[in-house]
């Protein structure tokens, strides 16, 4: 399987280097597209060239890149592995991607787990309540929509503060680099409206925490995930590129790994 990578930041570069170095059996690096970055040792190219040589493209360039280029990737016959799952909170984007074909859409689990069980439980019946609370270091949660005073107050915070709580679509849009997990949970339970998400800033948080609680016909669930932040990009977790590599391994050698 020839793998192209869209985005060469803290996620895309790790994925591209691992595929280049043979860490994913059955996968070969076709190229990397990133107009802003050009890491040494990676075969950089333009998107049309990438699409002509790839079987699958990993989107690791952010929500805007997925919205802009996702359909083009799929229409070219390449499968698409989505990292910026939060972009799918936008009305109609998932439907647009699914209709683009003939390439197939795959979603990376990113920084959280338990999604397989939530997907299974949702088949029995709709969930009654689902909540995901994300806690990150305060300084990594400053957003462009905040006023200068709000941003500085957040940087200088000395105690945990809940920044926003609301529907998963709203929180994912407000924190596009930090709340992709809320979108992943909503897609897993097949209901955007039932998922409540919250983002909490904690100046003393050594790890990024995601606590998921869910109640439905199949039972009650509680998952807590505590990840180390990426040294290069604290808004993301260090494990994210390795979740992508795990997904690539499953796609490249489907008989050799657990799904």
Automatic annotation (TrEMBL):
**EC number of the protein:** 1.4.1.21
Give, as one word, the top-level EC class: oxidoreductase
What catalytic reaction does the record list? L-aspartate + NADP(+) + H2O = oxaloacetate + NH4(+) + NADPH + H(+); L-aspartate + NAD(+) + H2O = oxaloacetate + NH4(+) + NADH + H(+)
Described function? Specifically catalyzes the NAD or NADP-dependent dehydrogenation of L-aspartate to iminoaspartate.
Q: Which species expresses this protein natively?
A: Amycolatopsis silviterrae
Does the UniProt entry include the keyword NADP?
yes
Record-linked Gene3D superfamilies: Dihydrodipicolinate Reductase, domain 2 (3.30.360.10), NAD(P)-binding Rossmann-like Domain (3.40.50.720)
Residues noted as binding NAD(+) in the record, renumbered to the chain: 111, 180
State the family named in the UniProt similarity comment for this chain: Belongs to the L-aspartate dehydrogenase family.
Q: Spell out the Pfam families in the cross-references.
A: Asp_DH_C, NAD_binding_3
Positions annotated as active site in the UniProt record: 210
Domain annotation Aspartate dehydrogenase: ranges: 159-244
Q: Which UniProt keywords apply?
A: NAD, NADP, Oxidoreductase, Pyridine nucleotide biosynthesis
- Under which pathway is this protein filed? Cofactor biosynthesis; NAD(+) biosynthesis; iminoaspartate from L-aspartate (dehydrogenase route): step 1/1
Descriptive protein name = L-aspartate dehydrogenase
As a miscellaneous remark, the entry gives:
The iminoaspartate product is unstable in aqueous solution and can decompose to oxaloacetate and ammonia.
Matching HAMAP family, A to Z?
A: NadX (MF_01265)
What InterPro entries does the database record attribute to this sequence?
Answer: Asp/hSer_DH_NAD-bd (IPR005106), Asp_DH (IPR002811), Asp_DH_prok (IPR020626), L-Asp_DH (IPR011182), NAD(P)-bd_dom_sf (IPR036291)
